[in-house]
From TrEMBL:
Catalytic reaction(s) noted: ATP + H2O = ADP + phosphate + H(+)
Gene: rhlE_1
The keyword Transcription is annotated on this UniProt entry: no
Residues in Helicase ATP-binding domain copies: 41-219
Organism in which the protein naturally occurs: Pandoraea eparura
EC annotation from Swiss-Prot or TrEMBL: 3.6.4.13
Motif (Q motif): 10-38
Family per similarity comment: Belongs to the DEAD box helicase family.
Molecular function GO terms recorded: ATP binding; ATP hydrolysis activity; nucleic acid binding; RNA helicase activity
Helicase C-terminal domain: residues covered: 230-392
Name under which the protein is recorded: DEAD-box ATP-dependent RNA helicase RhpA
UniProtKB keywords: ATP-binding, Cytoplasm, Helicase, Hydrolase, Nucleotide-binding
Length: 496
């Protein structure tokens, strides 16, 4: 697979960015633009609309934030009058966490300019947000639902927006935000620059783009799959009741210092977190039923390395700026095969290697088939010999709760509103839509790398030789990796 990082890229100083922005970039420790930045920054600076195929982890936030700041600098002023600080750039994101992360970045990049920015998302008190909006901000980062709450309460005026970013647009559609997006877009001036970022260019995304973008330039960069050849993927067939014991054993035997454990439901996430805690694994859960503060605290603790296993649902984990994570475990296989791609992209990033371990109960085999169809390759099967099974006492209570894996209401984690949007405001609830991948992106993601083939050979030989390994699918190494560092939490390296 072509190494896009090998292509010489211009330095940040070649874009004509203001010295105050270059200073902030240097303070972040960025030395070279990432591929998406190298391509997008000049185009955004030129004022053209952009359709960017890039995901979290590629540096896409800076690719739109830096040129936005540059383009807004002529309007920057130090006046105390709110009227002198209208919202000029609006950045919409699907989740609170992503909004918060984008806001952190924008704050850092604009630190030496008089430009003001704030973030609004649901699940937290509106009043501090109202105060910030009343004082005036040039750059507003928001989730759609909470933004509409502010629109309704007339605490925000969008009539002077000249730059709009739809970040992770595919996720916004997937989560049923289309009606809200349409409402917001209709409130914005027609004359504006629009930047749309999405992991996939499905028909829905193309339709959105053709309605709201003008002659956009499409920019595609190294997708997650470009780094995913560093990810060792393996599937263990495990009885549903044994999955918890399997997670504990995997953490121990693989010496995985930190993992995200993905589950499909909010109830399942809380339950598994409790059970892992009982097994002595320091764990936290993040999902849509947790308050914003709880989610932030869990994330912060994970960033600081105080938590070994972060049990998360797809929605809660979406867009989190997590890199160098030694592994992810799919406790439940995702309903939507695209989520598999997003999940395993949490590991093996920034050139690091990672392990993506999937636990497949017999009734989940179909999901594996779907995933393999999507990624166009067969996943390696490993053999997991459990040292001990889950305790029977827990098995009983498990069984009583089992049905929640497929509980409709619980599945609202994926499709429901996540930022405090009231039901019915946008003409009733929106039927969840499964976005079918239409583009190349998902059709050639995981080309087996030579290292993977080696691992497969190791797998076979260890099984044949009868070597007592409980992890037939992976070379039996104890990875000596740095505890997962979140780029947001530690000094950044030029890692793209
Ligand atoms: P993003 O894809 O925007 O979520 O960015 C992922 C991470 O990469 C963030 O922690 C950024 O701070 C970091 N990052 C962005 N641009 C660069 C760069 N040019 N060099 C090093 N790190 C970067």
């Amino acid at each position: 697979m072509a190494d896009v990082n090998a292509v010489p890229t211009p330095g940040f100083d070649s874009f004509g960015l203001h010295a105050d922005i270059l200073r902030a970039i240097a303070e972040q420790g960025y030395t070279q633009p990432t591929p998406i930045q190298a391509q997008a920054i000049p185009v955004v600076l030129s004022g053209r609309d952009v359709m960017g195929a890039a995901q979290t982890g590629t540096g896409k936030t800076a690719s739109f934030s830096l040129p936005i700041i540059q383009r807004l600098l002529p309007d920057a002023n130090t006046s105390a009058s709110p009227a002198r600080h209208p919202v000029r750039a609006l950045i919409l994101t699907p989740t609170r966490e992503l909004a918060d992360q984008v806001a952190d970045n924008v704050r850092a990049y604009a630190a030496h300019t008089p430009l003001r920015n704030t973030v609004v998302f649901g699940g937290v008190d509106m009043n501090p947000q109202k105060d910030a909006l009343r004082r005036g901000v040039e750059i507003l980062i928001a989730t759609p639902g909470r933004l509409l709450d502010h629109v309704e309460q007339k605490t925000v005026n969008l009539s002077q927006v000249k730059m709009l970013v739809l970040d992770e647009a595919d996720r916004m559609l997937d989560m049923g935000f289309l009606p809200d997006l349409q409402r917001i877009l209709n409130l914005l001036p027609k004359q504006r620059q629009t930047l749309l970022f999405s992991a996939t260019f499905s028909n829905e995304i193309k339709k959105l783009a053709s309605s709201y973008l003008t002659n956009p330039l499409t920019i595609e960069v190294a997708r997650r799959n470009a780094t995913a050849d560093k990810v060792e993927q393996v599937v263990y067939e495990v009885a549903e009741d044994d999955k918890r014991a399997a997670v504990v054993q995997i953490l121990k035997e693989r010496d995985l210092k930190q993992v995200i454990v993905f589950v499909n439901s909010k109830v399942g996430a809380s339950r598994l977190a409790r059970q892992l805690e009982r097994e002595g694994v320091v764990t936290a859960a993040i999902h849509g039923d947790k308050s914003q503060n709880e989610r932030m605290q869990a994330l912060e603790a994970f960033k600081q390395g105080g938590i070994q296993a972060l049990v998360a649902t797809d929605v809660a984990a979406r867009g989190l700026d997590i890199s160098d994570l030694p592994g992810v475990i799919n406790y439940d296989l995702p309903y939507n095969p695209e989520d598999y791609v997003h999940r395993i992209g949490r590991t093996g990033r920034a050139g690091a290697s990672g392990e993506a371990i999937s636990l497949c109960a017999p009734d989940e085999r179909k999901q594996i088939v779907e995933i393999e169809k999507l990624i166009k390759r067969e996943l390696k099967r490993g053999e997991l010999v459990l040292e001990r099974r889950s305790r029977p006492r827990d098995d009983r209570s498990e069984r009583g709760e089992r049905s929640d894996r497929f509980d409709r209401s619980d599945r609202s984690e994926r499709h429901g509103r996540h930022d405090g949007l009231r039901a019915g405001r946008s003409g009733g609830s929106v039927a969840p839509r499964r976005v079918r991948p239409e583009d190349e992106f998902f059709y050639k993601p995981y080309e087996p790398s030579p290292s993977t083939s080696d691992a497969q050979r190791d797998d076979r030989s260890s099984q044949e030789s009868g070597v007592p390994t409980s992890f037939g699918g992976l070379p039996d190494k104890a990875p000596k990796r740095q505890v997962a560092a979140l780029l947001a939490g530690f000094p950044r390296k030029a890692s793209h």
